Amino acid sequence: MALNYEVKKRAFGFDKTKTEKYVAQMKTLGVVGFKDLCDEVSKIGMAPRGVVKLVLDGLIDTLNMDLNKGFSVQLGEFGCFRPGINAKSQEKLEEVTASTIYRRKIIFTPGVYFKDMLTRASVEKLNFTGSVSGEGSNSDGGGSGSDGDENENPLG
Predict the structure, then answer these.
(1) For burial by CB atoms within 10 Å, which of 13, 15, 43, 111 has the most?
(2) Disordered: where is this region (predicted)?
């Protein structure tokens, strides 16, 4: 198994010329739905699918409650979920209010288990036809986690 990427042309706005460069971009192969995830966990964990669904639903509800209270939630080697915000900067201290917050998000930082997996994962270039080229390598680093894309909903 490998992580697949494709090459994309991007305009970088770091200078006045808006220079276009090529960059590798992660390409996911699809989405594993909740039902399929429950089935997979049931097979690996040897627990009935209904029990797996019950536990995952309970975990999601508990994460929701604790994050809503403002707590970070550490799930062992899995990682840590924490609430986050994006806010507009203001000139004066008094101008910073709740109305300057324009996005609430959930930030996930992977734990040791996922960081180790990312370190060991090979990386392969995905051709435009959808096939994988022979080019691949092992990564020296891991990911730092998502900062919570506004289109993401990490809790489903």
Answers:
(1) 111
(2) 129-156
